[in-house]
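Quick start: read one record
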Amino acid sequence: MTTPIGTAQLIKDMKDAATGILNKDVTTLRGFSERQITAIAQQSELVALGIASGQITEETREFFLDSIEDMALNFAKTLRGLLMVTIEKVWNALVGVTKSGATSAALQSHHFWWPVSLDVMRRRLS
């Protein structure tokens, strides 16, 4: 029994949709991560130099060290949020591709006559 959905094409379309989003978002995440990690490293170096030179005293040492910890935590939380957005984008793309494939297959299998093209119907249904 043949299926009205071209499974191989659907798999390819799903991979293409996910890959496109992931490639774009990973590039963005790399740039963001690089900037944040650089800033954290530079701040750590400045604090270390300040401690070594005595410009950062025992009284203020914990304050400066805590600020580095806060920077790292904020970076991790922001990265987590960005990854959640990427996951949602991939999810939405996969659902869109599968809905489009199922709708197309359903319309084609019943040989409906439509006064508009199948592409227009797909856009209206998505």
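The CA atoms of residues 16 and 94 lie 10 Å apart.
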